[in-house]
Structure formats: structure tokens, C-alpha cells
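C-alpha cells please, single chain.
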Amino acid sequence: MEARRRTWFDERGVTDGRRSLPFYAGALHYWRVPRARWPLCLRAMHEAGFALVETYVPWRVHQPERAAPPKLDDLAAFLDAAKASGLAVVLRPGPHVNAELTSFGIPDWVLADPTCQARTSRDTPAWLPVPPRAFPIPSYASTTFRDHVRAWYAAVGEVVVPYLGDPVVAVGVDNEAQMFFRTGAYDLDYHPDALTWWREFSGLGDPPRAWDPADAKRCLEWVTFKDAYIARALGDFAKLLDDAGFAGIARFHNLPPGHHGLYDLRRIQNALGGPVGIDAYTPRDLFPDLRRRALACAGNAAPVPIAFEVGVGFFPWFPPLDHTDDPTRERDHLLTLLASGIRGFNIFMAIERDRYYGAAIDQHGKLEAKWLPPLLAALAEVDWPSLRRATPIAVVDMRADARFGAASSVLDPMTPVLADVLGLGPAGSAELSRDPAAITARRWQTAVCRALELAQVPYTIVDESAPEDELARYRAIIAPTGDRIDRALWTRLRALAEHKRAVVVIGPTSPTRDEYDQPLPEPLPRRMGKLKPASLDDLAGLAEDLAGLAGELSDTWQVERPDDIRTSVFTDAAGAARAIFVISSAERAATAVLLADRALRDVLSNERFELRDGRISVPMPPGAVRLLA
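Here you go.
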């Protein structure tokens, strides 16, 4: 019995040791869909090709009053219906679920307690001004709040434990944990219990409440602590789920939309003991940024990179993702993620519901996203979870200058997420840093990625905490550096270069100081390459310089022309190409000419492209993505 009930994530998806389910999920909020329609909707999902149905278990819905215990009869009935439909279940019991619910699904009676509320640097409650009404943000360090969460998890466990392993195969630990989007360095959390965590983490006294260049080290420690705070909280929530009976069930967390440098995926993953993926709601003109977010997820999430929310439809109180009618954006959005190495996804929303417009399937079981069944069938045909994209180059996500940027931002305490959304410049939120190195660092990171794309060189993005043996799996490591670098990373890069385990390229500046602006004692190794300072304004020249780092790459499946279209090729264990994505960044329709050795077929339209003189021609609408097999 125990073996049957235990599940975990592997490189293919979620498994119980006997079978591995690809993580092709769709969201159905059971409390928003009439119970009589559940079988119809679940059957429609199964017929479309989904392996999993995902749902939140909203605390606010099931326990609106403190005096009454949670009412979870609907949850048990839904699990029975899902099992009967042949779908496995992914549960997400919060405590934060968002789901466009008031207070993000947390009961008012919890948030009304001052001892549960996160505190600002001015020692006032921190509020989130979001529709349908603002609410005080909970402190994840608050012992009172955690006691309430413990009781909530226990109530959910009483209902769900008999279903663990069949049909419930995975559980989400909270949702989009990023300080409820209030990520300004000195905004929160100054709750007394959080300050206890700070002192345990830093060994220092009171935390900083504003940027002070004379006390930069303490400010930088505080910025680093914010990442540690999130990881510790989620790790503790995972233990509370274990105590509630969920031990031995696969777990995960999903990070919110935003630049990959705004959170520490690996730290959370280590605390959680399960993969940490991303959420994605992206207009077409930002698909290049989405690709880099997905590459960072694929380069850091383990054992499987998943987009836990991929928007089909959107929130009614936000502007539409595209200003014009674009019937293929949602399809190309998912294809963009897959082309970057994402191997699992959850369609949000699969089933129509309130406080949201658009869905893959309406509440009467009618399929609206006609492209989904052929895509899911094609992924099954090529055995998508088994395919891999060869990436000879790793670009390191450098955080030393980024932390200075966060610590010294003139936007603070306003969240840097807003600065990225407003598009203030090529350095995103770093544009408002008092530290010019933070601005330059973000620009170089983007320039290196764009140059590799222009050179048609496959790459991935890895965090600066990646261990030496992991970095040594790549042929070349590019670490864009200014004067600062994380001291531990510097030690690993030196070892890689000196022992010839990988080609290491830094620059444009040779670092002389560490992440706290203290001198580095070690000189620059002779075997390290350098980026040219002028390359920041010469993308074509930078592309030419970086192309040689990948070694000899096959011309097959490369785009001969035009320059703003490229491919992403996935191969099986024998090295045979099984899936070829053609990705356009062009603003106008164009025809991509690919060097090829066989004819290809578009798996969604069934259009066939014949081989002529070692080439195939593929018509590409503006900004489109096509999957060929």
C-alpha cells in the first residue's frame, strides 16, 4: 500500500515507480463549476489529451468563519469524479492560491489578526491593493499565521489522505511566493518573528530600513535574506503538509511571472525537495523575454522544468495581453515555452470559470482551443518528455551587481516587478538603481543572450550557485562580469579554467571585488577569455565572437535566412532529431529557409514541407512559432 501511494517527480514528469505521467495538466476549479457538470468537463479534458487535472483548494471558500470547521465535502466528491474520469489530480491547498479570489483565497478572519500581518519598514501593516479589494499581507514568518496554516492543512489532509497516489499524485506548496509581489528591498517583512529569522540568518542586529552606502554589507545581507525567507517559509509549509499526511507525495512550487533574476529558484527548490517552475502570461511582443525565462527554468529546475501556469484566457481587471485580435497567441505562447526546454505545463484555465475570460473548454464540455488536442497528440507521438535540446553553452545569471541594484533602487519600496512591466529600459528594474554597475550587468546579460540567438547557438541560463561539476558539463561558460562577482562563483570559474574542464569567458571587466564590494585576493587566470567592451553596442560582432565557443555544430536544421528566425531542435537518446521548432522574431511575415535532410510536417496544421536541394521553406507569420516533426 505504501509503495502505491508514494509519488515523486522524475525527468519525465510525476511517477509512482511503475508509471510516469507527463505533466500535461489543465485547471478546473471544482468550487466554481456546478457539481453536475464535473463529469462532462473532466471527460472533455481526458479526450483532449490531458493526463492531469489541477485545482486549488481555497481556504477562504471552505472555511470563511473561524468558528466553523472547514467544509470539504465538495473536494472529496471532486476527487471521486476525477478518478472515475481517468485523470490524475494535482492539488494546491495554498495557503495563498490567488485564483482571483478576494484576499488571494485566505480567510478574512486570519488576515484581520495583527499578529498574522507582514510589517513594513515603518512598522505598519503591508497591504496589497488588488481587485476585488485590498487586503493585509500575511507574514510567512508569523507563528500565529503558521499555526492557522497547520490547522488548515490538517483539515485538508483528513479528506485527501485516502486519495493519495490515486488519484492525487502531486501537491503544490503555496503559490507564487514572492512577498505577494511587494518585493521592494525595504518594503517588508519587518514582523517581529521575521526579524528573529533575520538575526538567525545574518548574526546581525536590527535590519536596514533604507539604503545606506556606508552600511552596504548589511543592506546586501538583507536583500539576500529576503530570498532565504521565502525558501525557509516554503520549506516549513512542506513539513506542515508532511505532518498532515502528505509525506511521500510529489511536491512543487510555481514562481510568478517576471524576470528570472527576481527570485532564487534553486534556493527554494532545495528547501522544498521538489521542482520549482514558472508561471507565464505573456503578450506576443515579449516572447523573446519569455524564452529567456523558460531557458532559466530549464537550466535550473530539477528534475523536470515545468510551467505550472500557462495562460489560456486572462484576468478581466487587467488589460488584454494583446491589443489586437490574435487567435494563435495562446498556442504560440505554449510552443515558445516548449521550444526553450519546458517539459511539462498546466493550462490555466482548462475549464471556463468566473473572474476570468477565455478557457480551453467551456463549462458544457465544448472545446474552444482547437489546437490543444493535436498538440498533446503530437507530444505523445514524439515522446516529448524523453527529448532533449543540446546546449553547449551556459550563460551564468550573475547576482552580485543585481543585489546592489535591488538594495540601492530609487524605486524602493515600490516593487521592481512594476519597473519591469513599465519597460523603463533595456536594464529593466535595474534602470532605477543608484548603482550603475547593476544597470550595465543586466544589459550585458541580455546582450549575450541575444547574440547567441543571432548566431544560432543553443544555450541555457544557469544560476551563479550552480556547482562546478554541473558547469563542467557545458563546453563553454559565459559569465558577464563587471568589477564585482560572487566570491564562491569566482572560485569555481577559476577551477574550471585552470583545470581545462570548460572554456570560461568573463568580462567586459575583470572582477576585482566580491559580492560585498570587498577585494578579491586571487588574480585573473590566464586561461579565461574576455568579452570586448565595445561588443555591447555591436550585437553582430558579439554574435560572431561567441559562435566559436560552441565548437562544430551541424548545419542541419539551421536557418539559412532570414536572421530574425531561428530553430530549436530536440533529439532522442540516439541523437535523432524528433521535434524542430521554428521561431520568428520578425515583425512581418517571412519565409524561413532551413538546411535539412528530410521533409517535415507541421504537427498542428498537418502542412508538409518538401525537401529541395537540401533545404525546406517554411512560411512564418509575424512573431510565430511552429512545431515540425
